UniProtKB/TrEMBL annotation:
This is Glutamate-1-semialdehyde 2,1-aminomutase. PANTHER family: GLUTAMATE-1-SEMIALDEHYDE 2,1-AMINOMUTASE, GLUTAMATE-1-SEMIALDEHYDE 2,1-AMINOMUTASE 1, CHLOROPLASTIC-RELATED. The keyword Thylakoid does not apply. The keyword Ribosomal protein does not apply. InterPro entries: Aminotrans_3, PyrdxlP-dep_Trfase, PyrdxlP-dep_Trfase_major, PyrdxlP-dep_Trfase_small. It comes from Streptomyces capoamus. Pfam families: Aminotran_3. One of its GO terms (molecular function) is transaminase activity. Its cofactor is pyridoxal 5'-phosphate. Belongs to the class-III pyridoxal-phosphate-dependent aminotransferase family. Keywords: Pyridoxal phosphate. Gene3D superfamilies: Aspartate Aminotransferase, domain 1, Type I PLP-dependent aspartate aminotransferase-like (Major domain). NCBIfam families: PRK06209.1.
Amino acid sequence: MTSDLDTGEFHLPRSRAANERLHSLIPGGAHTYAKGDDQYPENLAPVISHGHGAHVWDLDGNRYVEYGSGLRSVSLGHAHPRVTEAVRRELDRGSNFVRPSVVELQAAERFLATVPTAEMVKFAKNGSDATTAAVRLARAATGRPRVALCADHPFFSVDDWFIGTTPMSAGIPEPVNELTVTFPYGDLAATEELLTRYRDEVACLLLEPATHTEPPPGYLEGLRALADRHGCVLVFDEMITGLRWSEAGAQGLYGVVPDLSTFGKALGNGFAVSALAGRRELMELGGLRHSGERVFLLSTTHGAETHSLAAATAVLDTYVEEGVTARLHALGERLAAGIREAAAAAGVGDHVVVRGRASNLVFATLDENGQPSQRYRTLFLRRLLAGGVLAPSFVVSSALGDADIDHTVEVVAQACAVYRKALDAADPTPWLGGRPVKPVFRRLV
């Protein structure tokens, strides 16, 4: 990488050319909006060649320490040997059959042993399908039309019932939007008021059990009681908290059992697998051993593809046997402490702010008035890239070593020195190198 750390001038010619080709073939230039080049400083969005452990290499040959790998999915590091070996064993045995494979049984047994609060599980390929299946199941079980979701959590599904609540709601009929209502995280009184206002209409309460802040004392227990009292289904979206909070998810850590929960992200260490899990009484409505009306729960051609299920089984084994969750927390605590110290030393401790559980760290970039700023985020990301750190977040993988964290803290310190200059000038423009990064959810391009 040709780079001048004082001016921030450096170039990624091959990545830039590949991004142009991507945009000509793929709407948005990526298969996930959060991976789009609009999320990075102008002309500085690396296109990845390969990865190993906690490092990735771009098409220009630059190596980066990577955080938030695979949108938080690669929590063991790229090409983890236990996972790749489990997949390799299945490669010559076929991948998809006209009847269930024994791998499906093994994966289900391993999952339910790891998440004992669930009684049945069904696998799919992505989180949206699993979470939408939970919504459909809740509606079928209760006979109610409305979905109540937490307004403070950023993403639940690509399906209409959720996307209609975002600024990118084009193409979704208004009658669909009207069936989704929202409640604030941590506010039991507001949630009860919502359930009372839509009495006997709300099929489920859907939320991430925890995000950047811990749940207030008694909050999850209170939601459990509200759901029981109002006859609706409590659904935990554990796409992120699953495995990262504890091997049994947030429900295992906090001791509050939802009726249904959805898992993904870390479950496959980058392989495509998600899960809907929950109480047998509800889950069996999507099965064959009941006398009621059938529910089309999940029925996906590739949901039981054996390579991904073998990967999931190996991931769960690795977490349980090697104490991965504890390692993630230890790495995150060390990283957070180093970043906070570096930011404070540069005089920007109130502007570069690390938040979240140690295993799931994010950062905020605040302007001279203490307000979130995409322009200052652009400056910060640019400095990190210049130093060989690819970090849309600071979400750790267990493959990180002490040297990786030390290097990251050193690069953050350099970035914070430039951040201080921009704050003193009350204008980060000279350090942006082009247009600022943009939020994923916005109405216009």
